[in-house]
Fold:
Amino acid sequence: MNFSYTILIPLIPFVVFLLLGLNHRRIKPAVSGYIGVLGLLASALLSYFTAYKYFFTVPKLEGVYQQITHKTVWMNFTDTLQIDMGVLIDPISVMMLVVVSTISLVVHIYSRGYMKGDPGYTKFFAFLALFTFSMLGLVLATNLFQIYIFWELVGVSSFLLIGYYYTKPAAIIAAKKAFIVTRFADLFFLIGIITIGFYTGTFDFETLNNPAGEVITNWASTSFMGLSVLTWALILIFIGGAGKSAMFPLHIWLPDAMEGPTPVSALIHAATMVVAGVYLVARLFPMYYFIEDGFALNIVAYVGGFSSLFAAIIAITQHDIKRVLAFSTMSQIGYMMMALGVSGYDGHEGVGYMASMFHLFTHAMFKALLFLGAGSVIHAVHSNMMGDMGNLKKYMPITNITFLIAAFAIAGVPPFAGFWSKDEILVAAFEHSKVLYGVGLFVAGLTAFYMFRLYFSIFHGKKTNYEHTPHESPASMTFPLLFLAVMSIVAGFIPFSEYVTANKVPFEAHLNYPLAAIAVITGLIGIILAYVFYKNPTEYPAKCRKAFGSFYKWAYAKFYWDEIYFFITRKIIFNCISQPIAWFDKNVVDAFMEGIGSGTIQVSEKTKKIQSGRFQDYAMAFVGGAVVIAIVLIYIFKN
Amino acid sequence: MILGVSIYEILSLTTILFFIGIYGFVTRKNLISVLMSIELILNATVINFVVINKYMFPDKLEGAVFGIFIIAVAAAETALAIAIIINLYRQITSVEVEDTTTLKY
Structure:
């Protein structure tokens, strides 16, 4: 089966990026929007075609989905260790292609309305195209090194887009923070990659992930500090993934990243880039599962579970609607990580893996919808704060309905998409560890509560006097909302276990009715509480705040993690490490180099008098030299 | 070939002439005198060409031809040098060597 045309899927956005980026002063905004949308439309259609071709026309090999690669050698280090460039087609990469190109297309269409009149309109579309290119390249990568290259490209485009409003100091700080934190995590990722390259002699996913292959069967051959080196490498790679996916404690950049334009938040910081870490773990899943009996995978599970709880608690207390959504994203990604962590490999045991990918898919749809809906609200109200909103259902009917659908989806109410994927995650957690199941269930309740707190505060609640009467957004913005709303309803009915599984063998997934009922009831309790608290202005929120006292304050301050980071970086690292290094640089390195410079100057000051400018001195030197040479030559050749 | 005069005597003459030229070139303060010293140096070399041609290869003419050639070049060169000196005089109203040190360092 030939899938080499899939290289076009990332290349089309790249061409769009070059076209718009190089000519961004010349191309009119009206045209550039169309170029961006058309390019992405082509990519999306190719992705759908690929999905159809892969899942329905390629014959399975003894019931297993085949992994198809097309690649060429890019760099050759040794006989075995080489870096390839190419495309890898397997269930998760095809699924990610569909997710990324769909969300990106929707966001492109939406941006035509949202960014209208912005001075950097064309540039914005160029950056969006660059991001889409990098993300699609990341998805299709055939080896660790290729994924790392696109990983960094994704980071750069995220940096550019967060800092898009570059005249706003907060946006610049947020962009820097996001870049530095994720780059810091990527350092560990790189070390992990190099470790794997050194000990296994290959970067190739096919070789690494083969459950019967040499890498996985020989994991115990080298150990370091009581663990296999490969386990260490996998933990380091997970740190890289945790940085990109905003897992605790590397989550601090994600809330600040909301300074970027809202379509960017929807595309990058909700639906696609932040799930790159999940994708990375899923990509290396056989290694995580088999090496050292899943030691690294357990870390993934607990970090994911803790992050989801941590973020959900913070999300309840925040007032900026985009920050609530940011913490919600972090919480949901924690869910996906947890699902991967509790997953087995064969057949129905791999339900966690399937659920994680399923949740990634549905979450992309409804979280993008939530962000775009929030963008529509912000567009109308010109504020991010919940306090400035209220009773918007009267003014913005379409946004209201679609936001409500998305909120139901994320709260896990059947038959919306989130219910199906969340239920599978809870089933997987229940089979693996009761603690993680409890965390997952509690987070499900919290999710429903904070999401409906958000919904009621925006669209219901107190009557607010608006300076300008809010109005419904233009069609270019409401069409994506409606499309994603439809997706948020139907995406849950896709039989995911038929397509995406850990060992690539389809299995039958059944709804576990008792667990599903518990999850739904928990979600409904959250919704009802939110209804009671926030449908109309009441005394309850203030009373609750008092009841929780300092815990509320901690949560409101995001548990002071920003302050902890500042303390560590400014007080400890700056004073104890950076300043001595700066002193050494100034007083030893620089002084040495400057000494060479000033020494040369002094010597030349002393000797420049020789150049008197009187030609007779030069003539004297010339003649004297000639005479000396003559005498020497005569003396030598006398015999 | 001059009867009764050996090549050594003539070469001694041209060497003395040459070094008188060098001495003048180095010590004169006036640019015109320096130019005259250059002429002395050139003449010494021209005589050398002719004499060595005459005494060592009597049946050849290259030395004499080169002598004439050098005289022509020297004339052109002198004209150029005079032009430079005149321009210099317009700039700094002097033809003294001591005053022409603007190209130093």
In short: The radius of gyration of chain B is 17 Å. DSSP finds three helices and no strands in chain B. Helices of chain B lie at 7-27, 31-56, 62-92. The mean pLDDT of chain B is 89.
